[in-house]
Amino acid sequence: MSSTTAAGREPTRRAMPRRQRTGSRPGAAGPVFVAPFLILFLLLFLTPLGYAGYLSLFRHRLIGGTSFAGLGNYVTALGDPLLREGVTHVALFFLIQVPVMLVLALLFALALDSGLMRLAKVVRLGIFLPYAVPSVVATLMWGYLYGPSFGPFAQIGRHLHISVPDFLGNTWMLPSLSNIVTWEFTGYNMIILYAALQTIPRDLYEAAAVDGAGAWRIARAIKLPALKPALTLTLLFSVIGSFQLFNEPFLLQQLAPNVIDSSYTANLYAYTLAFTGQQVNYAAAVSFLLGLVIVIISYVFLFLATRRRTR
Q: In the predicted model, what is the mean pLDDT of residues 130-143?
């Protein structure tokens, strides 16, 4: 028995090193799977970013050609009134559009999660569907609706002999842009909030119902506190998207050139500098400053949200 047992154990002892060597192979293969992402990240993100940073340190002149400017372009951009105007417009856009969009997304998510809405899947798809429409198509569609001479709103107003606001005028331009972006991205944010609601244990709802809590009480005491991380995420995405506003004002500029100029938003100003004014170096500095503003605002917002959550 002892010899048989020893003989039976010997193959197991010899197989142990082989299993260890085989188990080490997936760890060695990890970098191979990560390599395609790292290569694309380097080529498509870090390399253009580094090249733009390099360009921002130079200045091109008609006489003398390209010369090293150091931080001169950044100093000029900090005192540029057109850049300040563009940043002010996107800041006002953020204050107008983001609260409306997130409140609508939150209401839709709560309504869908309540289970009381009929045809919930159809409604959810209908709310999300505008996000699948490209922003260029959405802007062209709303630009047609806003048209003061050919748009349906203006035609209905003339038919009923009522005054219709000039949606492409100076007063209504920011609300009009806000409406387009809200129409596009409410469904996207609604899906994020709705997915977060699905992670809440249903036992909490049953326990609250046993204690006599109604639907509004459950939403206020259980659902809204649980949605704070998801709301923080959607608000962070909205900060980044607002300060990068470009497609909508760029397309509406063709319909309202007297209202939307080349510096209406910071991104539009950088685009005009680079591709119309041929000031590539200065445009790179403006873009970097805009990115720095987005990073600072996002960091401050996350810091305040995390600090409030830890209290």
A: 94
Beta strands in 215-276, from DSSP E residues, in sequence order = none
> How many CA atoms, within 13 angstroms, populate the side-chain half-sphere of residue 191?
14
Angle formed by the axes of helices 280-310 and 266-275, nearest 10°: 160
d(CA 237, CA 227): 15
The more confidently predicted of residues 8 and 128 is: 128
pTM value is 0.83
Do 309 and 231 contact (CB within 8 A), yes or no?
Answer: no
Rounded (to 5) percent helix, strand, coil in the chain = 75, 5, 20
CA triplet 265, 247, 125: central angle to 5 degrees?
130
- Give the type of residue at 97: Q
Residue 248's nearest CA partner among 272, 270, 264 is 264
196/192 Cα distance (integer angstroms): 6
Distances (CA, A) of 199 to 179, 195, 226: 31, 7, 9
DSSP-derived 3-state class of residue 59: strand
Cβ–Cβ < 8 Å for 263, 82: yes
**Closest-CA residue to 288 (of 52, 118, 22):** 52
Residue with tokens 């309540």: 114
How remote is the C-alpha of 236 from its chain's centroid? Answer: 7
Q: Among 39-48, 58-67, 201-210, which stretch is predicted with the lowest mean pLDDT?
A: 58-67
Give the H or E element holding residue 172: none
Cα first-last separation, the chain: 67
Q: What is the pLDDT of residue 117?
A: 80
> Mean pLDDT across the stretch 18-28?
54
